Amino acid sequence: MTQHVALLTQHHKAGFIAPAMQELDWQISTIACFDTDLLGSFAGEHARFMAPHECAFRKAALAADLSGLAIGLGSEGSYSAGPYGLGTVNLELLCCINVEQGWAVTGRYYAPSRAQQWHIASEEALQQAIAQVCPGQHVLIQQEDEFAKGLTPTQALRLAPAMLKQGPLELRYDLRAHLSPERQQHILLAAEDLVRRMNSTCPKCHTPGFVPDITIPGLPCEACGAATRLILQHQAVCQRCEYQQLYPAKQPFANPQYCPECNP
Fold first, then answer.
1. One domain for residues 160 and 251
2. Can you point out the beta strands (E) in 82-186?
3. Most buried among 17, 146, 177, 189, using CB within 10 Å?
4. Distance (Å, whole) CA 144 – CA 21
5. Contact by Cβ (8 Å): 257, 263
């Protein structure tokens, strides 16, 4: 039976997640009457005052409330420095809330990103930066508190020279989902993860989201048996009835190089 659900978005995300949602037989209705930029914007006009998972949850709750449907969806993306400060990574979250049954499940996808930004002080620097923009990606220009968004590279080349006469500017990727091919792919992969979590239900009460996300360290050293920081078990806990299951790590022992006793 088809389930009607609501997605809060201003950036056409329903089309990006629809292929994954077919497995659940969900019919998605877009709710666009709320300005999601008020919860934080990539350009920076509106500060982000919630953590990404809180924002995705908030959007899903608003989708259910504004639509009157039992199930709401909320998508949120964020960017941060990569491991050891190298590169940039993109985290995409897709939260699903069932307000009637009282549960929430969030799909996620985390991966390196090609998003870039440049400080531009000359037309030569502008030309060099535009040449590095990935195909299909839009950009934005910021000069102090003024923004020009949703520009193709060609449009940016036409607009920026006149702006440079007033001083340096910032050129960066416009990361709104409908203008970022990379984010569109990552949002789809987050939706696929949500479907996987929805299909993993509690053996006791059948609530979705029963996934062994909790890690428990303590894998014993192969040489001396001392506990290490490596994962000993994964744990799944039902968010409604608190039923738990433990799943042992694939390897029974840790290499002595990770042992605090053998390799202090």
1. no
2. 88-98, 103-113, 117-120, 139-143, 146-151, 169-173
3. 17
4. 41
5. yes
Is residue 203 situated within a structural domain? no
Whole-prediction pTM:
0.92
Are residues 70 and 189 located together in one domain of the fold? yes
Lowest mean pLDDT among 36-50, 135-149, 162-176, 235-249: 36-50
Q: What are phi and psi of 261, to 5 degrees?
A: -90, -50
Query: 188 and 20 in contact (C-beta within 8 Å)?
Result: yes
Q: Looking at 41-50, 176-185, 253-262, which range is the least confident one?
A: 41-50
Range of the domain at 147: 117-173
The CA distances from residue 107 to 92, 97, 187, 204, 251, in Å, are 8, 12, 9, 22, 27
- β-strand pairing of 214-217 with 169-173: unpaired
The bridge status of strand 139-143 relative to strand 244-248 is unpaired
Please name which of 108, 132, 122 lies closest in space to residue 57, comparing C-alpha atoms. Answer: 108
d(CA 109, CA 120): 32
Residues forming beta bridges with residue 240, ordered by sequence position: none
Residues 67 and 133 in one domain: no
Q: What single string gives the DSSP state of each residue in 50-79?
A: S-HHHHHHHHHHHHHHHH--SEEEEEEEEE
Q: Is the pLDDT assigned to residue 48 strictly greater than 90?
A: no
SS3 annotation, 86-107:
CCEEEEEEEEEEECCCCEEEEE
Q: Quote the pLDDT of residue 83.
A: 86
